[in-house]
């Protein structure tokens, strides 16, 4: 004999009576008539072949069977609500404009977007990479979400992870021994550019700006050829480069915070992507081989 099916409507009436200890108050909470609630509880009792409440003129108390059912009923109703919401959101459409740093947009974010789009195929994500220092000023106008880098302990937005700024150079050339030190950096507005210049000046290390580009790949290629040193994030350290430390005569650089910025009045589609990115990027960083 198959087990009886527990109708969520019947369970909802049962939980309401259990919570309010009254058929009248339960009916009011559910916007149903008292007779309808009583009938639903009766149908549930008949289906389970068990009395769920002890009824008196003054009280409505759970029976032993009712006590045993209550936890399961709450879980079934919760799962039912979650499943309905999930199916409805799967069919949600919309457009989300995301701004992100070049290295994260190249290495970190694409797999996260692939997972998101698999769950929400009708939401279209438009991603732009570049210097995020100016992107946050255009939230709501040009971007719905921006993943930006800030000095440790500074900046608004939701903290995602920490990144250590590190020096990097060719694995085959000892360019760090040159004097003045050739440096490949990003344009003005890049946090790592200002940190590198300030650290070298404070260390009284002679240097020259050998290469400037918006392109992460171009800067890394120049460094890989032994034409300059550069600065990268520890979490996205290029496998083609060699990490430099104080033993190589390079000054220590600060740590940065990666933060998510949300535009005001986000759409549901943008909020879903934001929550997805926060959950994924707060996971421990898997270091790339160097």
Automatic annotation (TrEMBL):
The keyword Transcription applies. SUPFAM superfamilies: Periplasmic binding protein-like II, Winged helix' DNA-binding domain. It comes from the Bacteria. The keyword tRNA-binding does not apply. It holds the Pfam family LysR_substrate. Keywords: DNA-binding, Transcription, Transcription regulation. One of its GO terms (molecular function) is DNA binding. Residues 6-63 form the HTH lysR-type domain. NodD regulates the expression of the nodABCFE genes which encode other nodulation proteins. NodD is also a negative regulator of its own expression. Binds flavonoids as inducers. Belongs to the LysR transcriptional regulatory family. This is LysR family transcriptional regulator.
